[in-house]
Amino acid sequence: MRLRIFLEPQQGATYEDQLAVARAAEDLGFDALFRSDHFLYMGDRGGGLPGPTDAWVTLAGLARDTSRIRLGTLMTAATFRYPGPLAVSVAQVDHMSGGRVEFGFGAGWFEEEHTAYGIPFPATARERFDRYEEQLDIITGLWRTPVGETFRYEGKHYRLSEGPALPKPKQEPRPPVLIGGTGPKRTPRLAAKYADEYNVPFTSVEDTAAAFERTRAAVRAAGRTTPMVYSAAQVLCAGKDEAEVARRAGRIGRQVPELRENGLAGTPNELVDKIGRFAEAGAERMYLQMLDMSDLDHLELVASQVVPQLG
Fold this sequence. Notes:
By secondary structure, this protein is of the alpha/beta class. It is about 45% helix and about 20% strand.
């Protein structure tokens, strides 16, 4: 089981805040640092000051300001960018990091952030997923096109004519692609076709296991032979004792019983037990959503008292 740190900077964080977490996570031996891709604060606590930071601009900075930890998004929104320029950005950041980028990619869903920043939002979920699938086709197609050859694409929403398919990512044949969600049909099919990793965010162990099985079935139906990595994301609220758990829950505006039910909350031994249940369901990686970026002691507690028990 590998533990990865997951940030939500739209809730209020500077680049320096994110860098401090990334460096601490790297020094403490965590596997990766991922961040969300959102432009608008969620919830009713505070206002998300100083404002959003762009996911791929941030990752480009972290690529140069860290040396080992892997970097990625959960999930880049297809609605925010055109697929060709996005393929260029991700490939460039992969080079800037020395080949440490992982590309989490989703259809996009938060309509309010689109209207807040003047980003067109497809009228229906079907159109969003149609565009998303075409973007997956284009981005992975651009990356796998041999150097010296061009890439053409004729879709309903996107058309590319003799694209040079450059630059290539540092990793060969491409950075790992992550697809996530709990959709019953289309998401498993897209994961089986395009993804190296399938992620289930913020659901129970039982629902996560069911989603894993749907994707395993889609992988079998597709006749896929390359392995799929299965992972889960959960909010983190650990403490050495009950008082510390309660203090950390209060700082993120949550209640301890609710966090124990819906996240990874409690003492280190409680976290180990629940992570073990996700492992039994098939999870090989856990993304720990760290909502209070100022609390670097939180990371140290997990690294010193949870990680050693996971083997």
